[in-house]
Amino acid sequence: MATPALGRRLVACLLNISEARRKDLVETVARAAITDGNGTRREGSTVLNIFNDFDYNRSVITIVASIDLIREAVLSACERACALIDMTAHAGVHPCMGAVDLVPLYPLGEDVGLEDCGREAQALAYDLTQRVVGTSAFFFGWADSPRHRGLAQRRKEVGWFRKDLDISAIKPDVGSHPIRRYGLTGVGASPYVMNCNVTIDTEDITVGRGVAAALRESSPGGLPGVQVLALPHEGAVEIACNVESVQGEPPASFADSAARWPTFSIAGRRFCHAPASLITARVAELAGRNGVGTKGTALVGFTPLECRRLAERALALGIGEFWKQQHKVFM
Q1: Whole-angstrom Cα distance, residue 14 to residue 193?
Q2: Edge-to-edge strand order for the sheet containing 263-266?
């Protein structure tokens, strides 16, 4: 039974694995986070959501536990994924480098800091390379100490976006030189990152790239904390956004916006993130300049506050397979 104090120590991992077309395999990986090697229920951990995308051949599994239990829960899922996914046979339109492609840890509770999650992420990566020989990882965020380079920067540095990359030539932060069977895994910690994908009604990837370029944080007039890719998706183009949390109050330039920027705290530090409604409206505006409409918006998982609230509920009720009650959240 969860207690109010437990919520203050919660950590989320939005585990990204390079498989979505075999949903039974994905669920097997998810169950590994909430059961031990004998199949016995692991108390204190829950899987809130599984997001599958067939075209991307990628799934995101939302695992939540206390800072004391999150490493073992995530490690067990990673081990199972490595045993079941062979990157030499992988095909999908979303960029990826590893069977376990991304392992981000996000503090949800007031008593867990980014430094705590960074240390857990480092230990998790080292443990994974010991348990699954041949795996390797690079660090980002607070696991990348002392530089704290962001995920987008680290992905560029290791060649994550390149299609012609010789993965064996990469020097990882931990583990052996990457092998094709497992690929390379990004492991890190940061304030919560929400995934918000807006589909535009065109097959013209050039239009999508123009929208993505104008939307991303690094562009003049772009949205703070928003990193963007334009990808072909189900006969249209998806504007796939990583919505990073930014420290401080909502930017003054968006004070008059109709969409309120959600805020939350990590160890006494205030953070906020761009709301999905604002991202959707901006994509619609940018695409509309090319005579293109939008088809819909999908959130991969939850906002930070929703994630904590649902995790507290799942743990209080002792529900490990919470994803069976909670599926994709559509706006």
Answers
A1: 9
A2: 246-247, 269-272, 263-266
Confidence (pTM) = 0.93
Which of the 8 DSSP states describes residue 254?
A: G
* Helix, strand, coil fractions of the chain, as percent rounded to 5: 30, 30, 40
Residue 301 has pLDDT above 90, yes or no: no
Residue 15 CA neighbour count, 13 Å, CB half = 36
> How far is it, in rounded angstroms, from Cα 209 to Cα 264?
31
The residues, ordered by sequence, that sit 6+ positions from 316 with a Cβ below 8 Å of its Cβ are: 1, 2
**Facing residues of 247 across strands?**
271
68: CB partners within 8 A, 6+ apart: 9
Q: Which amino acid is at 48?
A: L
Closest by Cα among 185, 190, 178, 194 to 75: 185
> Cα dist. 254→124, 222, 248, 274 in Å?
38, 11, 13, 10
Any long-range contacts for 31-38 (C-beta under 8 Å, 24+ apart)?
A: 31/320, 31/321, 32/76, 32/77, 32/79, 32/80, 33/61, 33/63, 33/73, 33/74, 33/76, 33/77, 34/73, 34/320, 34/321, 35/76, 35/320, 36/76
Burial of 35 (0-12, 13-18, 19+ CB in 10 A): middle
Q: Tell me which residue of 225, 145, 124, 141 sits closest to 188, measured CA to CA.
A: 141
Residue 331 predicted with pLDDT over 60: no
Instruction: Give the mean model confidence (pLDDT) for residues 245-267.
Output: 84
C-alpha 266, offset from chain centre: 18
Average pLDDT score over the chain: 93
Please give the pLDDT value at position 276.
94
Question: Where does the pLDDT of residue 330 fall: very low under 50, low under 70, confident under 90, or very high at 90 and above?
Answer: very low
The residues with which 50 forms a beta bridge, in sequence order, are 61
Sign of CA dihedral 109, 115, 118, 123: negative
Residue 9, number of CB atoms within 10 A of its CB: 19
pLDDT over 70 at 329, yes or no: no
